[in-house]
């Protein structure tokens, strides 16, 4: 199992645990924040920086 798969499974488990510990609306805000923060960071990059990020991902796929 890849490292990324382990992180995704761990994130899902933590998301479900927050549903039981916190009220549903607070859990929803936490989950949206965890998903939204990297997305907003990526969207704030210049087009040339986004191109470099995509190239890094493709380079890692081949190794």
Outline the structure in words.
It is built from 3 helices and no strands. The protein has 63 residues and is an all-alpha fold. The chain has one domain (3-62). It is flat. The chain has helices at 3-21, 24-43, 47-62. Helix 1 runs antiparallel to helix 2 (24-43). Helix content is 87%, strand content 0%. The longest helix has 20 residues, at 24-43.
Highlighted features:
flat; mainly alpha; 87% helix
Major sheet description: none
Give the amount of beta strand, in percent. under 5%
Unreliable residue runs? none
Secondary-structure element series? HHH
The total count of strands amounts to: 0
Mean pLDDT: 85
- State the end-to-end CA separation: 16 Å
Number of domain modules:
1
Helix/sheet category: mainly alpha
Radius of gyration: 15 Å
Q: Tell the overall outline.
A: flat
Short description:
Keywords: Membrane, Transmembrane, Transmembrane helix. This protein is mainly alpha-helical.
Q: Which helices and strands, and how do they pair?
A:
Layout: H1 3-21, H2 24-43, H3 47-62
Helix pairs in contact: 1-2
